[in-house]
Amino acid sequence: MAQAALQPQSKHERGQMAAGRGRGGRDAARRAMLLAVLPLAGCDGVQSALDPGGFEAAAVARLFWVMLGGAVAIWLGVMALALFAQRRRGEPWPERRAGRLVLWGGAVVPTLILAALLAYGLVLMPALREPGGPLRIAVEGEQFWWRVRYQAPGQAPVEAANEIRLPRGQRVELSLSARDVIHSFWIPALAGKMDMIPGRATRLVLEPTELGRFRGACAEFCGASHALMAFTVEVMEPEAFAAWLRAQAAPAPAPAEPPLAEGQRLFLAEGCGACHAVRGTAARGQLGPDLTHLGSRPSLGAGLLDNTREHRMRFIRETDRLKPAARMPAYAGLAEPELAAIADWLGSLR
Predict the structure, then answer these.
(1) How many CA atoms lie within 13 A of 288 on its CB side?
(2) How confident is the model over 121-148, as pLDDT tens digits?
(3) Dist. CA 12–CA 23, nearest whole Å
(4) How far apart are CA 109 and CA 1, in angstroms?
(5) How far apart are CA 207 and CA 23, in angstroms?
(6) What does the alpha-carbon distance between residue 222 and residue 142 come to, in Å, rounded to a whole number?
(7) pTM
(8) Do 170 and 156 meet the contact criterion of CB atoms below 8 Å apart?
(9) How far is 173 from 49, CA to CA, in rounded Å?
(10) CA 241 from chain center: how many Å?
(11) 297 exposed, middle or buried (CB, 10 Å; 0-12, 13-18, 19+)?
């Protein structure tokens, strides 16, 4: 009786059970398809090596797809041999015939495919090593920010920090170094990685082809705030870039209002000028980022926060919490009006 009660009592009930199993199978298939497609969401964006915005990154992306094709070809060959061996019936192969299969399938064919991939990669290298144009940019990795210095022909060097601007369609040579520990400079959408080694300058040539803003990061563990060491790269039209660089070479604007003048006074009185430089003022420090045109930068703290008044105040007050092991002390003792005055003055530096 109990067993009979557990069985479907009609064709209708049996049909419902079958339909339920069918829906379950379809749901499982949908979930499997979603999981298979989900990784493709990481193939585009401002920090994707598979969504290139520069000549070098496009070459790296092509190399990736070609190597992936070679890997898939080898994998399909191995799977075909495995299925063949599983389904084959009859007498075992003679030892000589089996040896030839192992030799060709396990050594000759993979070696030819890998040699072709290597040759393709080597063919790409000369174009990636061509010298850059007249513009030179020196980037130095610090703990935990980026010192950037532009050197254009016939102009004095222009220093900035935590952002890089590039003219579209022009090859630009970057000289990369590090002050303290090894860093790794990486803008996935524009070029491959390059290590930054203390006491040594390495060279990276970029040729951006797409306008827009891209994200770069340090790709080598360098300390407690390694994950908080990013930077932005903005690609501009050549004329707009030239105008921007001329504006960056100018000193900081003088405070236009008394509250801004009070912010500048507090900045200098609190000793901030011993570490930071603001051209056109008495602040000439070299230990920290140059703040001459901080108000025009999109972010604070090497990509940590958006450059807003509230975030500037918070960064001054909570540096040790926001950026562990950073060399800048936190000014938690400043009153709210004093923090606001300094933040407003820094925001006016454009």
Answers:
(1) 21
(2) 888 888 777 887 899 999 999 999 999 9
(3) 16
(4) 65
(5) 52
(6) 9
(7) 0.80
(8) no
(9) 20
(10) 22
(11) middle
Mean pLDDT of 80-90: 81
- Percentage of the chain modeled with pLDDT above 90: 63
Q: How far apart are CA 34 and CA 8, in angstroms?
A: 34
Q: Which residues contact 90 (CB under 8 A, 6 or more apart)?
A: none
Q: Evaluate whether 316 touches 272 at the Cβ level (below 8 Å).
A: no
The most distant pair of C-alpha atoms in the chain lies apart, rounded to whole Å, by: 99
Q: Which structure tokens are listed for 335?
A: 């009153």
Structure tokens at 154: 């016939």
Residues 141-164 have a mean pLDDT of: 94
- End-to-end CA, the chain: 87
- Is residue 215 classed as helix, strand or coil in its secondary structure? strand
- Give the whole-angstrom CA distance, residue 119 versus residue 117: 5
Concatenated DSSP letters for 225-246? TGGG-EEEEEEE-HHHHHHHHH
Q: What's the 3-state SS for 154-212?
A: CCCCEEEECEEEEECCCCEEEEEEECCCCEEEECCCCCCCEEECECCCEEEEECECCCE
| Rounded alpha-carbon distances, angstroms, from residue 229 to 159, 166, 300, 322 | 18, 20, 11, 12
Backbone angles phi, psi at 232, to 5 degrees: -110, 150
Query: Distance between CA 338 and CA 315 in Å, rounded?
Result: 14
Q: Which two tokens stand for residue 341?
A: 């005055």
- Note the pLDDT tens digit of each residue in 161-200: 999 999 999 999 999 999 999 999 999 999 989 999 999 9
> Residue 166 — φ and ψ, nearest 5°?
-135, 145
Q: How far apart are CA 280 and CA 267, in angstroms?
A: 14
Closest CA relative to residue 57, chosen from 235, 226, 313, 222 = 235
Both tokens of 119, joined, read: 């040759």
pLDDT above 70 coverage of the chain, percent: 87
User: Taking CA 47 as the corner, what is the angle to CA 54 and CA 140, rounded to the nearest 5 degrees?
Assistant: 80
